[in-house]
Design goal:
3 helices, elongated, alpha+beta, two-stranded antiparallel sheet, 51% helix
Length: 81
Amino acid sequence: MLDVSEKTCTKCNETKSLEDYYFEKDKKGNKKPRAICKLCHAEYNKNWEKNNKDKAAAITKRYRHKYPDKTRAIALKRYFD
């Protein structure tokens, strides 16, 4: 098997280190890098949240309801740090 340490992002077409990619498991359970780099993924998420405000708010609300202790800890840390 080839030891590949770089990959080309399908969105920005830049060749980057594998550290610049998120990994996911395929159907066999093997970890592989995603098609787009972390920066392009973050940009995609930001645009999605801007264009889908209602859905994003609902997801945030569900998360806060499901994990109140985590949400409180994050809020306190943000407030006191």
